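Changelog note: in this version the structure field was regenerated for every chain. One regenerated record is shown below for reference.
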Amino acid sequence: MDEHWLAAARDGDRDTVLDLLRALPEPVVAGTEGSALLRAAALGRRPEIVELLVERGADAGRPWEGGVDPVSWAADYGAYEVLRALLIRSKEPVRKDSPQQRALVVARAWLGLDPERELRRRLGVGRHGEAFVDRELVGGIDFQPTATLLRVTAPDGRYAEAELSHRAIVTFLERAVGIRPTRRDLVARALHYAEPGSCDWSESLDAMTARLDLAPTFTWASAAIADESVDLRRFAADVLHAMSFEERPFRIAAVELLRGRLRVEPDPVALDSAIGAFAAYSKDDANLSDVVRHARHPAAEVRLRVALLGSVGHPHRGGRFAPPPEVPVALVELTTDPEGLVRAGALFTLAEGGIDGPEIRQAMAARLSDENDEARLQAAAGLALLGDPRGISVFKQVATTVEADTQAWWRVDTVSRILAAQPQ
């Protein structure tokens, strides 16, 4: 396989890989050539390319160079997203010889290990030997979970590394083969490194909230959200938030529980999730005064959550939105926030709520030259939707600069359709 093509797979160059796949016959993709591409994409930590290759016929069960089993390698390395991509077409996971079962054995072995000590052992430098130890946060792109990449480098330049997501892999594979992890296990796995948004955290969160009867989970979270452990409160708030997007029999109880937490939670991460959950459970009946009381919170992520009024689709154009007076006042203030995304969020909410008035238009007009592209777009869109010629002019300019299939592009498309449908 030409190095050019391997580099494309390793670097995540989807267009180049697609060009190659169009040129290669299916038997070649399923053979050593496809396997080499699959290995390059996996080593480059490119799950999206791995999935593309597997979907196009690359054999995830075919051993790589040196007889390496792809799924066992991914489980050992801790490559959670890559492993999921490798298994995208795998069938009959409950078979004793399935790739899921093989990978589960490998991943479970890591749960009793000290990762740094294990990597040192593999390098032969010993527990106290000279070595450089580095940790790097990877992932987190396009809403993917994050992971910590641990690398131990010997004085001669050799290194060993692993992503610390083995607990997520174990949970994912247990679920695939029909094993139901206990709530105690899931919480312990999420809190082992206690990194919100990580693979370990997200997989445990998904497993806890994917069950049919969530009443016991709500009861657990109701107590855990007031625990003295900030890590446990963060996870409990995320659990409550994850359960809030569908109608639940405990909705009213959740609203009251979270209303109380919004007034006393000192941690910004837990508060961020609690505001989101409160708004989602409350739906159109949310008391937004309980949300905007945090408009001046020192943490930008909390102010962004406030600017979006909980991020649950209210207000929305054409919906019922009659907030108390302190809500638009807080949103106007947030249009001057030091953080561009917060300004953009507040401008978006004002626009979607259809709120009008001299102070609203003045706030939007002041941001038409904002240094933040997203804030400038939202200000122009807001004024354009109100029929203000200042916004229409800038919106047309901005619309020609946005990149296709981005969040900004979709916003431009939505607003353009609304404007086109309005009577001239």
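Spot check on this record: The two ends are 59 Å apart (CA to CA). The chain has three domains: 1-68, 91-210, 215-421.
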